[in-house]
Amino acid sequence: MQKSNDQKSYFLRYLSLAPVLAVISISVAFSTWAFFNYFLPDLLFHPMP
User: Fold this and answer.
1) H/E element holding 35?
2) What secondary structure, in 3-state letters, does 3-22 show?
3) Transmembrane ranges (predicted)?
4) Using one digit for the tens of pLDDT, what is the confidence trace for 14-48?
5) Per the confidence metrics, is the pTM higher than 0.70?
6) Within 13 Å and on the Cβ side, how many CA atoms surround 15?
7) What pLDDT is attached to residue 48?
8) Alpha carbon distance 41, 35 (integer Å)
9) What is the pLDDT of residue 46?
10) Rounded distance between C-alpha atoms, residue 30 and residue 24, angstroms
11) Which phi and psi (to 5°) does residue 46 adopt?
């Protein structure tokens, strides 16, 4: 049973690493930007009538 506890602690330590947090935050920011541009596109490509 001790191995399972060690694996959980190593997994939590892995999730708290800076590169992992950076990739997650960049992907969330890009996804937000992509959805925003999908629903409210730039007026350069979709001019108002």
Assistant:
1) helix 18-39
2) HHHHHHHHHHHHHCCHHHHH
3) 12-40
4) 888 988 889 999 999 999 999 988 888 777 776 76
5) no
6) 6
7) 66
8) 10
9) 66
10) 10
11) -130, 75
